[in-house]
Amino acid sequence: MNKYLDISPEVREALAAGKPVVALESTIISHGMPYPKNVETALLVEQTIRENGAVPATIAIIGGRLKAGLSPAEIEYLGKAGRNVIKASRRDLSAIVARKADGATTVTTTMIIAHMAGIRVFATGGIGGVHRGAETTMDISADLEELGSTPVMVVCAGAKSILDIGLTLEYLETRGVPVIGYGTDELPAFYTRSSGFGVDYRVDSPEELAAMFRAQTELGLKGGMLVANPIPEEYAMDKAVIDAAIAQAVRESVEQGVKGKETTPFLLARVVELTGGDSLESNIKLVLNNATVAARTAAELCK
Question: What sign results for the dihedral spanned by CA atoms 243, 244, 246, 251?
């Protein structure tokens, strides 16, 4: 085991016994929602995973230690600290560990730490990707590189709709990442059920997902698998409303010179404001939906 990694007793026991475990990120706690909604949501997602037959392993870096499985007190700590916690991507890990600092894990770093711990399934909201205007800014999320190299299944509601989804799919294809639609032939766009772009394959059950990921692992293929699970229809937002809010948020980010790792938190927070909080509620519902699918798939993988 990596000397910088701490696995909680519950997660360690589950892994040793061959029980299903689902990884969860912590950027959604520190940077994705305001306190106390962030803590309430994190605990509710963990509860949802338990109700669907798996053990939750929320992942973060605390005091320079990589954590696979957080206590409620640690989740509360991250929630209260908010954006004072470093948003940690791959390039930040060594500095955070060396300085014994705190870090909230993105999709990238959650995949890294989950793989270190032996966790194969990870539930999140949406992945990062190619940002709008990337042909001039070169702003491409490290999530896409990690998906191309780390063997973890990522269950999400598609790429965040603030992104250039077409270019994100092209990049995933280049990196050899299979994009699987769960109950859909189209890639969902986070707040809405369709982006207008197709997926590589459609599956309709956790059993199919588990079989596909097992085959990929046993073939020795490098990289992860992206499972796109649409937001439940009753919580999906009107496409025209969300598109208008995103367009305005993107314009404001350019005008204010927002760049790099601050871009996504700025855009998501601004979209929440512009939609009167509706996008935040949709965000919570889609994360819970992804946690359900991830837990059931992890259970199938352990059979």
Answer: positive
